[in-house]
Amino acid sequence: MSLDRRGIKQRAREIIASSKPRVLTVGMVFLLLSIVVELLGQRVLSVNVSESEAMNYMNYVSEGNYEYALKYLDGMTPPTSAYLIHILLSLTMSVVRAGFLIFLLNTVRGNAPAFGNLLDAFGFFPKVIVLNILKAMLVFLWSLLLFFPGVIAHYRYSQAIYLLIDDPTKSPVQCLRESRLLMNGHKAELFELDLSFIGWYLLAAFPTFGYAVQFWSTPYIATTKTLYYDRLVGRRAAQTVTASE
Fold this sequence. Notes:
- There is one protein chain.
- The protein has one domain.
- By secondary structure, it is mainly alpha-helical.
- Helices cover 78% and strands 0% of the residues.
- It is built from twelve helices and no strands.
């Protein structure tokens, strides 16, 4: 059965309009946290370089004193602790993002969603972090071959985080394997679903204005993809029951 993209997106809009607490409100909190963490990360990695210091560096380069220039540049780079803090902030937001997905799954299933769901993933945060790292590594390694194998890998493991949320007792590796099986024959339809949001992605990429767009597009797209996962596992369950009969 092919995916009804219009139907699933319409259902997402209906859920957003009637949900309590509102998906848009919780999404706004999530997005604001993301923006704050992003700005903090940029601030941590920023380096205040005076005009005279920049001129000294340029003079070293123009004079061919590359050894001095490199040493000077090394002194202007952020310390190792800054990179560690940036990584920690990114990992923390990955756990909050999992919490947002918990909220959306509870919403689409009518399982008493609450603002507190944003923090629920901290109950199994090591698995969330390991899963995200393993997925990133797999996509990166496949991308070394060519661009398209990397894209395919991204969609192959796209459902792993939902599977972990559904059953936190599973290991990250198990979730990645199950996602690969779950996405057999469905990677193209999820890719097409993503393409249907291309206009929102482009608008969200604009500086400043893009943040305003994201207050709608982020919850809307995330709700649609959560519905997609819910229907995907439902279809797989139905196929399993049919096969056993």
